[in-house]
Amino acid sequence: MADLERRIAVARGEAPADIVLKNGSIFDLMTGELIVGDVAIVGDRIAGVYERYEGKREIDVTGKVIVPGFIDTHLHIESSLVTPFEFDRCVLPRGVTTAICDPHEIANVIGLPGIRYFQEASEHTLMSIRVQLSSCVPSTHMETAGAELLADDLKEVMGHPSGIGLAEFMNYPGVIYRDPEAMKKIRLFEDAHIDGHCPQLSGMDLNAYIAAGIRTEHEATTAEEAREKLRKGMRVLIREGSVSKDMHALQPLLTHLTAPYMCLCTDDRNPLDIGEYGHLDYVIRTLIELGSPALAVYRAATLSAAEAFGLKDRGMIAPGKRADIVVLDSLEKCNAVIVLAGGVEVTDEAFAARGHVAPVGRGSVKAPQVKPEDFRATGNREEVDVIGIIEGKIITEHLRETVPIVDGDKAPDPDRDLSRITVIERHGKNGNIASGFVKGFGLKAGAIASTVCHDHHNIACVGVDYADMALAANRLSEIEGGFVVVRDGEVLAELALPVAGLMSLEPFEVVRDHLVDLRAAAASLGVTLEEPFLQLAFLALPVIPALKITDRGMVDVTKFEIIA
User: What are the residue boundaries of the Amidohydrolase-related domain, all occurrences included (predicted)?
Assistant: First the structure.
């Protein structure tokens, strides 16, 4: 019997299902009721619900709650610091059965081969990975990336089954001022989904941005900002990543009225935070703890997410839907007991049976060897622009401080929490080195450096000792990228990320343990930030207000221009 006919027969009780979840409390996303019944599964689909079914395999879930698989509506798998296969193994057991990813981190390093790597990986993972096509590689003209993707390049990777549309359009000035290449990309995806990215944009400029056909927004950091974007027809994604933490600010907006138009995402979240707190499961239980109705939260995590991205085959425990199912201990605790992805129970054996794709992007760190004197800040003006960190946010303050010039250099001042920040071009294009000041790390000694440096992924280094900064930066070339912490000429901790300088080849548990050591090493330098490495990475992203730095200099993002 063909799959379609068999599924209908099972739904009518004429034939046994492949799997039946027996006697669980199914969470009805229409009414909010918990209704005891069975869920019958045939292949990768749900055949029947609520009624009594028989199956070739029956799993008793009495006393447990059955909900649809969670959908992370915007993330960069590279920011988990592991390959898509390890991300699958790390996150899927927590109930995230669909991940809508933008591979623009790896695309900024190696271009189309990076996107193809994710597309091919999506064919083998148990989780459903949907690969949006990266819209802004590089994110702006004010940085040096390893690749550039134009509209004609994107045509080459369109049409893959994992695709939905165009990923976050970060160059919002390019949209509102009708840059020809931006218009060409948008026209290419006019009939498809286009993700948004427009922090603090409002008024007529926001209208212009949305008028281009852009449908979602994950950069809202206040309830007021999110409310305007909802009113103007955008789906707002509540983000809670390792650095970008907007959940508490946006939670009051998530109600029964708004839930159909709000979703959840993590954007950038590493294995240490996933291990300590969780992934979307953490966001769900925290939103409920903060007072959002459970029905609104689970809708945002499942059905609303599916509808926002046109995924008509998932998001409910209902006949004909994809069998992405999470069995929970309770709605409030949101601890996954059993997870099925496309009808496959998530087990170690299921992960072992997957296919794999060889990693790409080895040998991508081509930075020049640097010397301590390369980190000096010259100039004849004592007033300097300073990046002010706001912990838990990727937006920054644009501060100004007076730094005396001594022997032709404006040196770091740990007593005032003024650290040197330097970006070194690492793609072998021009060898640019740009330096400035940052306030908010709390550094008293040493240096930390990283090749995770959004979105161009050059080397970012922050420190108060030039020799240690040089050692940290040069060490990154030796280990093919990653994170390094240095003090007094000694490497205290490091994590190698040889896949495009972004992802480890190790299991996520090993990466998590290295991150513990790195955080401890950073704290020993006086660093007060909970997540200093991703915080550092976002200081180089020139599409997030207010002041950032790239290999070409300090960038005033509000003016969208290099100022030093």
Answer: 65-334
Residue 212 in contact with residue 248, Cβ under 8 Å? no
| Structural domains in the chain (count) | 3
DSSP 292-359: --HHHHHHHHTHHHHHHTT-TT-SSS-TTSB--EEEES-TTT--EEEEEETTEE--HHHHHTS-----
Let me know whether 500 and 415 are in one domain. yes
Which residues is 450 bridged to in the sheet? 460, 483
Closest CA to 529 of 443, 444, 441, 449: 441
- 161 and 235 inside one domain: yes
Q: Which of 31, 63, 95 is the last residue of a domain?
A: 63
Nearest to 432 by CA among 387, 370, 378: 370
- 36 with 113, same domain: the answer is no
The DSSP call for residue 57 is E
Residue of 262, 209, 220 lying closest to 245 (CA atoms): 220
- CATH classification at residue 79: 3.20.20.140
- Do 255 and 213 form a contact (C-beta atoms < 8 A)? no
**Per-residue pLDDT for 528 more than 60?**
yes
Residues 6+ apart with CB under 8 A from 30: none
User: Same domain for 142 and 226?
Assistant: yes
Q: Would you state the pLDDT for residue 30?
A: 94
Per-residue pLDDT at 1 exceeds 80 = no
Residues 86 and 25 in one domain: no
Q: What does the alpha-carbon distance between residue 432 and residue 558 come to, in Å, rounded to a whole number?
A: 23
Token couple for 180: 């020809």
Of 547, 545, 541, the residue nearest 454 (C-alpha): 541
pLDDT band for position 379 (cuts 50, 70, 90)? confident
Same domain, 204 and 102: yes
For residues 20 and 93, membership in a common domain is answered with: no
CATH of the domain at 32: 2.30.40.10
Of 45, 31, 69, the closest CA to residue 326 belongs to: 69
Average pLDDT over residues 410-430: 97
Cα–Cα distance, 448 to 409 (Å, whole number): 21
Residue in 165, 88, 154, 97 with CA at minimum distance from that of residue 125: 88
Domain that holds residue 406: 372-562
Rounded Cα distance, 58 and 65, in Å: 16
Question: What is the b/e burial string over 42-64, where b = at least 16 CB atoms within 10 angstroms of the residue's CB?
Answer: bbbbbbbbeeebebeebbebeeb
